[in-house]
Specification:
Layout lengths: L1 E4 L2 E4 L12 H22 L3 H8 L1 E7 L5 E4 L2 H7 L7 H10 L4 E5 L5 E9 L29 E7 L10 E7 L1
Antiparallel strand pairs: 1-2, 3-4, 3-6, 5-6, 7-8
Amino acid sequence: MTKQIEEIEVPVELAVEVPVELTEEERAAKKAEHFAKQSAGTAKSWENQDVRASRMIRRGVLVRLPDGSDVLYGSIAKAFIELDLPLAKHYALRKDLREIEGQQIDFEYPEGVRYTFQDVAVPEKKKKEKPAKLKEGDEGYVAPAPKAKKAKKEKVVAENVISEDAAPIEVEATFD
């Protein structure tokens, strides 16, 4: 069996279909449909309690520095940047830390200088509560100070007292 393409006969197994060009509107609609499906899938995955629990845990990294002190960083990348370590190497270290959950990995850079990394759960930041605004009549209410009046600016024509030949000049001045 053969298929005719531009007046050339080609065996069907060798024939390649040419992709049809989509219009901008069709391309936008297809993209929107893709993201809608993806969003629905992501939203549904939050219903799984194990997935929800693992997503709610914020992870950080505890680094033991060469001097023996421990410092907590929000991410391995932030630690590498702050410690001036080669950022390209943090990907492999992050992967290794995830695989051996809870254990430590030593990283040497430059040769002989050792940093120890450990993946840790980071406690959530406590949200600061805004104090309730007191209203007139509430106990402890203090009325706001009256607003100060703005000084008026006026243009004044001043006479030149240095020379009688000079023209008068305009000056902007503020008066109370």
